């Protein structure tokens, strides 16, 4: 075996850094988990690799097979990378209103992209993926119901947060899309200290924050267990975007809109509690949103 690592070996072990200027309450510490430092640029690198690897170990897929997944962006990029690493073909189905940087990144890794309209959205994309699988066109990993998604965070993200916060974390905040991050981290952190508070973020009605959703009941991810979340914050788009811009300009952390939502939630929480160590997931980098104009104003 070669003594030299491969790109896969650099998934995870991302920095946990302290906010220096934005925190409104000096009795608290706000720590940002910089998941944009993963090789494909987001927190989704972890479950993408784990879902493919575990399916391969179970004999459900073999290199050369075609994988299909509905995605709003980050999971698609991560799966395209993981498929390239492990020798799979990747077909991704996504709404047409996602940023061109995301599409270009997926194509760069060799993935094929099928677009559905913004009106049809992720629900239609998920339905189409299942129909394609039924037609024998590939295998759906299904991040929304696949336990290998939260398992990735139970095995890596949660332990990293606990170790790097020196076991002092009191509150954990994550935006909710597939809910894999919050489910896996909640399970691990609560096992270490049941008093750790788990806070999920979902968008207010009408908000278009990439990567997080307020799902209709019929499409709620089956991996989601409401009992693992202590409270939920409804986040409006302007607050998420404002925090995102402050994060870059005041802290030097260039991130996306859902990351801004996590930080906005952490700031709100910091105004309400004292002597807390608040960990927020900064799930990706800001460069994949530049074409949307969100950083222009």
TrEMBL record:
<dbReference type="InterPro" id="IPR036052">
    <property type="entry name" value="TrpB-like_PALP_sf"/>
</dbReference>
<dbReference type="InterPro" id="IPR001216">
    <property type="entry name" value="P-phosphate_BS"/>
</dbReference>
<keyword id="KW-0198">Cysteine biosynthesis</keyword>
<protein>
    <recommendedName>
        <fullName>Cysteine synthase</fullName>
        <ecNumber>2.5.1.47</ecNumber>
    </recommendedName>
</protein>
<feature type="binding site">
    <location>
        <position position="74"/>
    </location>
    <ligand>
        <name>pyridoxal 5'-phosphate</name>
    </ligand>
</feature>
<keyword id="KW-0663">Pyridoxal phosphate</keyword>
<feature type="modified residue" description="N6-(pyridoxal phosphate)lysine">
    <location>
        <position position="44"/>
    </location>
</feature>
<feature type="binding site">
    <location>
        <position position="258"/>
    </location>
    <ligand>
        <name>pyridoxal 5'-phosphate</name>
    </ligand>
</feature>
<feature type="binding site">
    <location>
        <begin position="177"/>
        <end position="181"/>
    </location>
    <ligand>
        <name>pyridoxal 5'-phosphate</name>
    </ligand>
</feature>
<dbReference type="GO" id="GO:0006535">
    <property type="term" value="P:cysteine biosynthetic process from serine"/>
</dbReference>
<dbReference type="GO" id="GO:0004124">
    <property type="term" value="F:cysteine synthase activity"/>
</dbReference>
<dbReference type="InterPro" id="IPR005858">
    <property type="entry name" value="CysM"/>
</dbReference>
<feature type="domain" description="Tryptophan synthase beta chain-like PALP">
    <location>
        <begin position="7"/>
        <end position="284"/>
    </location>
</feature>
<dbReference type="Pfam" id="PF00291">
    <property type="entry name" value="PALP"/>
</dbReference>
<keyword id="KW-0808">Transferase</keyword>
<dbReference type="InterPro" id="IPR050214">
    <property type="entry name" value="Cys_Synth/Cystath_Beta-Synth"/>
</dbReference>
<dbReference type="InterPro" id="IPR005856">
    <property type="entry name" value="Cys_synth"/>
</dbReference>
<comment type="similarity">
    <text>Belongs to the cysteine synthase/cystathionine beta-synthase family.</text>
</comment>
<keyword id="KW-0028">Amino-acid biosynthesis</keyword>
<comment type="pathway">
    <text>Amino-acid biosynthesis; L-cysteine biosynthesis; L-cysteine from L-serine: step 2/2.</text>
</comment>
<dbReference type="InterPro" id="IPR001926">
    <property type="entry name" value="TrpB-like_PALP"/>
</dbReference>
């Amino acid at each position: 075996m070669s003594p030299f690592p491969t790109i896969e070996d650099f998934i995870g072990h991302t920095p946990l850094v302290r906010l220096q200027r934005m925190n409104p309450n000096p009795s608290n510490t706000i720590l940002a988990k910089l998941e944009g430092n993963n090789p494909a640029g987001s927190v989704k690198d972890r479950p993408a690799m784990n879902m493919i690897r575990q399916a391969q170990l179970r004999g459900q897929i073999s290199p050369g097979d075609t994988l299909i997944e509905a995605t709003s962006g980050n999971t698609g990029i991560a799966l395209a990378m993981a498929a390239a690493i492990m020798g799979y073909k990747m077909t991704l189905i996504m709404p047409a209103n996602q940023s061109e940087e995301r599409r270009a990144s997926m194509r760069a890794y060799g993935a094929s992209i099928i677009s559905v309209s913004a009106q049809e959205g992720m629900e239609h994309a998920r339905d189409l993926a299942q129909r394609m699988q039924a037609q024998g066109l590939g295998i759906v990993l299904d991040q929304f119901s696949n336990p290998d998604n939260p398992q990735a965070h139970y095995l890596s993200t949660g332990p990293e947060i606990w170790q790097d916060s020196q076991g002092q974390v009191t509150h954990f905040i994550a935006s909710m899309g597939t809910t894999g991050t919050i489910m896996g981290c909640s399970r691990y952190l609560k096992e270490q200290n049941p008093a750790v508070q788990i806070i999920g973020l979902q968008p207010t009605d009408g908000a278009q924050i990439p990567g997080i959703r307020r799902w209709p009941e019929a499409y709620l991810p089956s991996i989601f267990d409401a009992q693992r979340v202590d409270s939920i914050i409804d986040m409006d788009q302007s607050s998420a975007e404002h925090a995102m811009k402050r994060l870059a300009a005041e802290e030097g952390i260039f991130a996306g809109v859902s990351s801004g939502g996590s930080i906005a939630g952490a700031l709100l929480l910091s105004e309400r509690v004292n002597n807390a160590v608040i960990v927020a997931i900064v799930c990706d980098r800001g460069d994949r949103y530049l074409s949307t104009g969100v950083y222009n104003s």
